[in-house]
Amino acid sequence: MLRNKDFSSPFLAVAATAGAVAAASMFFVGYRRDRDSSTMSNRRSAALPKIPWELLNSPYAKELQLAARLAYQAGANMKGYLDAKGTSRESNFDLGIETKSNDTDFCTKIDVENERLIMEGIQTAFPSHDIIGEETVGTGSLPALKKDTPTWIIDPIDGTTNFSQGLFMTCISIGYCVGGKPVMGVVYAPATEEWYLGVSGHGAFRNGVQIKQSNPKTSLERAVVCCEFGYSREQHEIDAMLAAVSRILQHGCRAIRQLGSGVLDLCYVATGRIDVVYSGIVNEGWKPWDYAAGLVICQEAGCVMEAIQQAPGQTFDLYGKSILCGVSREVVDDMRKVLLAR
Question: Where do you find CATH 3.40.190.80 in the chain?
Fold first, then answer.
């Protein structure tokens, strides 16, 4: 967790300064006066998110505007490489890959650049706020989430392996917490120009259009299932994860997928592209920066997000070791029974 720390980097071609923050505020607030339109005018850059009036009228409008601007700048850092991957221009990019806990867990130079850019922008606009970032925390212990301090939780590139391979399932995730729980989330997938925005009590939106589960599938047999195996490579862990997949297939489902970006998994559940996602059979679950923004978006879309083993009435724990998120209570309960069966 960081506060009031100076970040400087030769890689930051676009830094979020106070002037940039002010400009972002003027840009977004100007559209709040146009009550005849629910979203920002298409006359502006198509890459910027369409922020609906419902979100601009929330208590966290300024934080949302800043997060969207910073996510856009971080996405610009990623697009050059994603567009060049597989072409003669790929040799112009040095990702500067560095491993973390093992060879499968790594970060790129752009992960670090994006995190510095986002942190600098937040600290300029909100110097008293705390920040938890994936690359800053690294493999060390996770700082506690304070109830008395607004806290940003950021993943500068979710789906780093996908990004390094040039696969489009990769994104920037910025969550904002008040009172120890997420209240705002911004997710930007630069390869597909998709924006997912959510504020607690004010809805969730994809590219300016509200997302809401209106007719979700209610049985696992009809569901498209997503799972993420993470970095576990011990034989007994592999056996347990594969056994869970085997039980799902034996029970019956429409299909099983593994997409490589936990944040986008959650966004895809929110939009109904997949019906249920799980991870954490052997406690290989995700980290707070994988959950924070997606939790708000999923809950506002009407989805159910819990741990695999969770007591009735218990709220989802950002620091937990497993996740089970689905489009309906029925499909989550069905999946839990199959995952926990022995």
Answer: 220-340
Rounded-to-integer distance, Cα 247 and Cα 296, Å: 30
58-105 residue pLDDT tens: 999 999 999 999 999 999 999 988 887 877 777 667 676 565 555 544
Query: What is the rounded CA–CA span in Å between residue 151 and residue 287?
Result: 15
Tokens of 232: 């576990």
**Which residues sit opposite 224 in a β-bridge?**
255
Q: Are 42 and 155 in contact (CB under 8 A)?
A: no
Q: What pTM was estimated for this model as a whole? A: 0.83
Angle, in degrees to the nearest 10, between helices 61-84 and 18-32:
110
How many other C-beta atoms are found inside a 10 Å radius of the C-beta of residue 302? 15
| CATH entry, 220-340, from 3.40.50.720, 3.40.190.10, 2.60.200.20, 3.40.190.80 | 3.40.190.80
List phi, psi (to 5°) of 6. Answer: -85, 125
Q: Which CATH class is domain 18-210?
A: alpha beta
Residue 119's pLDDT is 96
